[in-house]
Amino acid sequence: MYTIHRSFSTMCENEAIRTTTSDTIITLKSGIIEIRKRREKSMFYKETHPNDEIILNTLSELVPKDHLLRKIDKSIDFNFIYDITSPYYSHTNGRNSLDPVVLFKLVFLKDIYGIKSMRETIKRVETDVAFRWFLNLPFSKPTPHYSTFSQNYIRRFQGTSVFEDIFNTIVHQAISHHLISGTALFTDSTHIKANANKNKFRNAVIEVVQERKRDLENEINAEREAIGKKPFSYTDKTISKTIKESTTDKESGYYHRDNKEKGFMYLDHRSVDGKHNFIVDCFITPGNVHDSVPYVSRLTYIMDKFKFDVNCVALDSGYYKKDILKFLEEKKIF
After folding, report:
1. CATH 3.30.420.10: which residues of the chain?
2. Domain 181-194+265-333, CATH 3.30.420.10 — does that match?
3. I need a surface site. Which of 81, 123, 257, 289 has the fewest CB within 10 A?
4. pTM metric for this prediction
């Protein structure tokens, strides 16, 4: 039996407390109790039973001061999530739900660390001290089930603006901290694989409205009216088009471009602020939608939503379209 001749209160002090027997050394320092065998005097030493160490520390003490999650937690106030999600929860009955901030922080962790699934994210939370600290989830509490988020999405958040509201609020926080200028924007798209086999599809015939050159039509009619002639009456023309439609994920689109992988994809159209590379807009379309199609509407949305005074944009050649050029010229954006 081991006896330590100090009061328990001294365990909180920085000085080491040590007692020994013939073959064992017990040390208490900074709240950590270490019990180990006495080391024989030899250059060769093999550590035994390191997993038996008893640690009396808080989660915060175990997370490095310069850890990325500490920086994120310091920079972003996540309490706004309570206000955004409150209308979607019952406040008078039902059993306690998972804290909505924890729910959405799980998504942040998944995306920040590039974890492929929520199942793998939960496995990481089980053992990762920094993850638990970020979630305010001590080891004394069990981790949520991996299906919790998907079930909340299906039953509570699907079809709502919750995700967009959370994203926009974080952008507004970055603007308030002068991390986003809103004067120069970079836009491009990247493809995201759909969870669908590219060989399982059917040929679907769809009706699409043929793209009209409305600016050219307006110019022609303006010239005709100027010389006293009756303007032309232009109408939309509908054409039939055959496309590949996934039998697994009908919302995806078949993506095929030179020197790139073909298959059923989605396109993530992103706009990034030029000051510190903050993403200010994400817009998802099927993979068969051209990059240029949503550009004007998304740029208009960004400028209206965040009150940006955009004076220059950076785009690749895929956006070299007449309607985009005309819009940028009218807005004096170069």
Report:
1. 181-194+265-333
2. yes
3. 257
4. 0.74
